[in-house]
Q: What sequence folds into this?
């Protein structure tokens, strides 16, 4: 039990139990997003995100860094969720929008636009007019971690936010695209605890992985798809190419729109 709850009070933003206490009580994604941005439950991540905002990168000296947890981005009725490790220190931690302002985000948004899920192929800042249709982006850890490596404790502290977000999306959610092995390992227990029945042994991560989780009394059928993360390491080496990512997103968009058939390039209607 968190110290605050043991003392008979709701955990504050700096208490480790803040996400676990508040996330399940949120009634809408907007309410959840507002609480996410207040969270200070992981001291190492708080110190790092604020240090980066103070020192800045030379190219961004004129920016007022966001320097808070970055909430999910996309409509509250999305039928597809994309989950991947983010934000970057000088990306989302600077711009305040998920996957925005770094090379990985550039790659991801170009692919989303190709499939018809984004209104434009780039995401530069939070007021650039970009909108998403039918898809919501989120992360298993909402703060930029040093060396892009959250600890297991930080991942677990943040898990209630992801669980609550997927639960709030669940009435219409049809597909979850997971970017990278870290995200895959974070998502599986969330889905299991939420009432989806995972196969045994648990499905292994791999690019192009596609697992159909059958409907239960509590949940409708859900498609779980895997893709390599669009990190610079993966895209520069050719481990992940644009056609590879587009194929996975197109498959997710197709199953996310039952009865509509295959999604064509540019179809955002």
A:
């Amino acid at each position: 039990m968190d110290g605050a709850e043991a003392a008979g009070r709701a955990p504050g933003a700096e208490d480790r139990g803040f996400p676990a206490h508040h996330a399940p009580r949120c009634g809408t994604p907007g309410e959840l997003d507002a609480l996410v941005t207040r969270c200070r439950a992981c001291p190492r991540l708080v110190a790092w995100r604020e240090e980066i905002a103070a020192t800045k990168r030379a190219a961004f000296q004129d920016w007022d860094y966001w320097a808070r947890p970055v909430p999910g981005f996309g409509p509250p009725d999305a039928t597809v969720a994309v989950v991947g490790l983010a934000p970057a220190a000088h990306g989302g931690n600077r711009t305040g929008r998920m996957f925005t302002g770094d090379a990985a985000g550039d790659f991801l948004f170009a692919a989303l636009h190709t499939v018809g899920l984004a209104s434009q192929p780039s995401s530069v800042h939070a007021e650039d007019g970009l909108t998403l249709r039918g898809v919501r982006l989120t992360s298993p850890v909402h703060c930029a971690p040093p060396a892009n490596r959250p600890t297991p404790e930080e991942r677990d502290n943040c898990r209630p936010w992801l669980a609550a977000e997927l639960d709030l999306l669940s009435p219409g959610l049809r597909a979850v695209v997971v970017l990278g092995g870290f995200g895959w390992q974070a998502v599986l227990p969330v889905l299991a605890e939420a009432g989806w029945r995972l196969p045994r042994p648990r499905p292994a991560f791999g690019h192009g992985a596609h697992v159909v989780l059958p409907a239960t009394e509590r949940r409708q059928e859900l498609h779980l798809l895997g893709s390599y993360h669009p990190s610079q390491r993966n895209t520069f080496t050719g481990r992940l190419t644009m056609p590879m990512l587009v194929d996975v997103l197109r498959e997710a968009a197709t199953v996310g729109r039952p009865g509509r058939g295959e999604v064509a390039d540019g179809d955002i209607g």
In short: The mean pLDDT is 93. The chain is about 35% helix and 10% strand.
